[in-house]
Design a protein that fits this description.
- The structure holds 2 protein chains of 2 kinds.
- Chain A has 12 helices and no strands.
- By secondary structure, chain A is an all-alpha fold.
- Chain A has a domain at about 85-285: MetI-like fold.
- In chain A, α1 runs antiparallel to α12.
- Chain B is an all-alpha fold.
- Chain B has a single domain (about 1-250), classed as MetI-like (MetI-like fold).
- In chain B, α1 (about 1-15) crosses α12, α4 (about 90-100) runs antiparallel to α7 (about 135-150) and α7 packs antiparallel against α9.
- The two termini of chain B are about 25 Å apart.
- Classes of the chains: A mainly alpha, B mainly alpha.
- At the A-B interface, α1, α6, α7, α8 and α10 of A face α4, α5, α9 and α12 of B.
Chain lengths: ~290, ~260
């Protein structure tokens, strides 16, 4: 009975989270489509400016514009095309958005993965040192390192590594670390003070058994959710790092799109990034 | 330590508010015969590439950060409270949508919609306003959770049973319960926005020239040889780090990840 109740609860939560995920993607898609429609030059008849376009092509183009006259019609067309991997054309770079993304994802992926893994690992390790050994010699350096790194703009950290010609993923990791540290420390403190752990300690269990059985095990779902949040933050950190250090990745592409007001590209990036981030958050929530 | 941090922050706030009296020159005044000059009498931090006094610009930049970062935090808190007070699922859905897009992306999308001929003063207000609007989702998630918990509390049931109107329950009972949380989030958001403005300024998407801000003063750090030769270019960064550390000393809870 208890097992069936738990399964029903899980199924309910799974459905609610799935619906939230789908609604998020659909609404962001709608906003992206609205953004593309409001971009300069959208809806302008190309036949007016280009006498080289023949009458037949003109008819096809005008028919396409007329069919997407309402936002809903345009939105469904935009989303259907996006599902097929067609995110339109960048107005600034005059190239398909999908091609731009294909070229830049391999550049950003190692930075994002290395930075997230490094930041999570370092943040959790320092949180552990600040909570578990109960020694000032461990606590003070951990807190000081986290506090100092939180005070430095991530872009400055990245510039420092860039000028030293060091790899850039540690910049993302170091900027992410203090943001993970605060939450991980609070989480570990809660478990450290739990009655179950106190009772186990009174029974004389060893440190490693206490750590794995009473802290890391029960905290794993929340740490997984924290990893989801860390990916979102790391995405945000990619932007200043890539833009300032001249890394041709997704972050730099977003910066170019924003500074040159390339709205079709920005809309596609918003749709893709929010889908990715919502998926990661959804997976993180499912583990809880 | 807390006294030291409070004292330092008070000094910074006073410096920002009294900028016109402390700064020897206006922030946009150019000394055309002294471009990129080193420290000298009259300009003890030297001048920038177009001959503006660095110290004056730093003092005025402090005023902008001191005034506008708390204002942006206030905007976020107001929006978060408004959204959190909606019915449970619309608030959760809205928060989920906003959380699924890193705020910096959201900020850039909003900023790219601004007209090109916007004046620097309007752009300054809009930059911090947009930061406030883009950053409401994190506090909203926390307020929503607190409001959900409140919904299950005994005192709320009792207030409802006593026939109190929803407005009275919100003002006289729920408000005081939320107040400490609101203050805590406000304190967390201020350093987050100071840092955000610095990052945006470095990217050239923050406060526009000729208005000075800590962010756009940090842009000079992009030239390492100039920094090595003129270490006083690090002054805005040192001031920013000192302010951030002081804010952390006063409020070490960093549960909110922005």
């Amino acid at each position: 009975m208890i097992g069936a109740g738990r399964e029903a609860r899980f199924a309910g939560r799974f459905t609610a989270q799935l619906l939230t995920f789908v609604a998020t993607v659909l609404i962001v898609g709608l906003l992206a489509a609205a953004l593309v429609r409001s971009s300069p030059g959208y809806g302008t008849d190309p036949c007016v400016f280009d006498p080289g376009i023949d009458a037949k092509t003109c008819d096809v183009l005008q028919q396409r514009y007329r069919s997407a006259d309402s936002l809903i019609a345009f939105y469904s067309g935009y989303l259907a095309a996006a599902l097929n991997g067609d995110f339109g054309q960048s107005s600034e770079m005059q190239r398909p958005v999908a091609e731009l993304l294909r070229n830049r994802v391999p550049v950003s992926a190692p930075l994002l993965l290395g930075g997230t893994a490094g930041g999570l690992g370092l943040g959790c390790l320092l949180a552990w040192l600040a909570v578990w050994p109960r020694r000032k010699a461990c606590q003070i350096p951990a807190m000081a390192a986290s506090g100092l790194l939180l005070a430095v703009p991530p872009a400055v950290l990245a510039l420092l590594l860039f000028f030293r010609e060091w790899p850039l993923w540690p910049g993302i990791a170091l900027a992410l670390m203090p943001r993970v540290f605060g939450t991980a420390k609070a989480l570990l403190e809660d478990f450290y003070q739990s009655p179950a752990l106190l009772a186990a300690r009174a029974r004389g269990l060893g440190s490693s058994r206490l750590a794995f059985g009473y802290v890391l095990g029960p905290a794993a779902p929340q740490l997984a959710a924290l990893a989801g949040v860390a990916v979102v933050i790391a995405f945000g950190l990619l932007l200043p790092v890539e833009a300032l250090c001249d890394v041709p990745g997704i972050g730099q592409l977003t910066w170019i799109a924003a500074s040159k007001r390339d709205l079709p590209l920005l809309a596609a990036l918003a749709l893709i990034i929010s889908t990715l981030v919502a998926s990661v958050q959804w997976l993180g929530d499912l583990t809880r | 330590m807390k006294t030291l941090a409070t004292g330092f922050l008070l000094l910074i706030v006073l410096m920002g508010l009294a900028a016109p009296w402390i700064a020897p020159y206006e922030y946009e005044r150019q000394f055309r015969d002294l471009p990129a000059a080193g420290p000298q009498p009259g300009h003890f931090m030297g001048t920038d590439d177009v001959g503006r006094d660095r110290f004056s610009r730093l003092v005025y930049a402090t005023r902008i950060s001191v005034v506008f970062a708390p204002t942006a935090a206030l905007v976020s808190i107001m929006v978060a409270l408004l959204i959190s007070s909606l019915a449970a699922w619309p608030a959760r859905l809205l928060t989920s949508i906003f959380l699924s897009l890193p705020w910096i992306f959201l900020f850039m999308i909003l900023r790219s919609k601004l007209p090109l001929n916007t004046s620097p003063e309007v752009l300054l207000v809009l930059t911090f306003g947009l930061m406030g609007i883009a950053g409401w989702a994190f506090p909203s998630r926390i307020f929503s959770a607190a409001i959900r918990e409140m919904g299950k509390s005994g005192w709320l049931l009792q207030a409802r049973a006593a026939g109190l109107s929803p407005v009275r329950i919100a003002m006289a009972h729920a408000g005081p319960h939320l107040w400490s949380l609101v203050l805590a989030q406000f304190r967390v958001l201020i350093p987050a926005y100071v840092l955000s403005e610095a990052s945006l300024g470095l990217l050239g998407l923050g406060v526009p020239d000729p208005l000075p801000s800590w962010g756009n003063l940090l842009r000079e750090l992009q030239h390492p040889y100039a920094v090595q030769a003129n270490p006083w270019l690090l002054a805005p960064l040192a001031l920013l780090i000192a302010v951030m550390i002081s804010l952390e000393v006063l409020d070490p809870s960093r549960r909110v990840a922005i």
